[in-house]
Amino acid sequence: MPATDLPLLIEAALEAGKIATRYSGTQAQRWDKPDGAGPVTEADLAVNTMLEERLCSARPGYGWLSEESEDSTDRLDRNSTFIIDPIDGTRSFAEGARTWAHSIAVADNGVVTAAVIYLPMRDLLYTAAQGQGATLNGKTITTSDTAELLQSEILAAKPNLDARHWRDAQAPDFEGAYRPSLAYRMALVAQGRFDGMLTLRPSWEWDIAAGDLIIREAGGVCSDRTGQRLIFNNLHPRLNGVIAASASIHQQLSALLDPAGPGIGT
């Protein structure tokens, strides 16, 4: 349950930060995953091993879904599942940057109920439990109150602004920005530092599960690119993009996106 899971996730995230920061990102051993799936480092694997041992020992009845573990359909038979990205932003970590994060969540029957995003190099600990609000370093956070999309600042990589994604064949003229960690982008929206974020390509559940709850508990809205609610612990753990923002900005973004635009598998 959220009330008991969140302290466990916080303890695990803090320990993950201790492990990851023992490595020098630029000197850590690094491999490229097959099929262009991106890099992985020895730090990712060390954090993943600790998290799996600690979390699954504490909740033996929960399923397990992690970027750095071989997937098993056993998780589909569990009401609750851990959804983990040991290091979100591995490229940044390997480059010696500070914007990578640990993303740790629990989903109950497809809905995230407890979540932590932790950036140890920036001393930023974002947390949320269902019905209990969202916090940053223990202080309550809320999404921004910007009312108009054209006055907003949206975290989005340049490919998301391609004309093919938008109803009028042109992206709206909001101010754009970018951060390499998807989990961190979502946390910044929850914090109100940015008005929204979007990624229109297929998105792995482990990148966005924790951010989904933190944004919702901060008063925002999180959906896929078509405006549908995000459901987690799917057989194929990829979702059809993400739109996350305050309620007003989310509505405006959704109205301007072309629902027939490129989606899963394109």
TrEMBL record:
InterPro entries noted in UniProt: Inositol_monophosphatase-like, Inositol_monophosphatase_CS
Transmembrane regions: none
Gene3D superfamilies with a match to the protein in the record: 3.40.190.80, Fructose-1,6-Bisphosphatase, subunit A, domain 1
Keyword Membrane (UniProt): no
Metal-binding in keyword set: yes
UniProt superkingdom: Bacteria
Keywords of the record: Magnesium, Metal-binding
UniProt similarity note: Belongs to the inositol monophosphatase superfamily.
Identification of the protein by name: 3'(2'),5'-bisphosphate nucleotidase CysQ
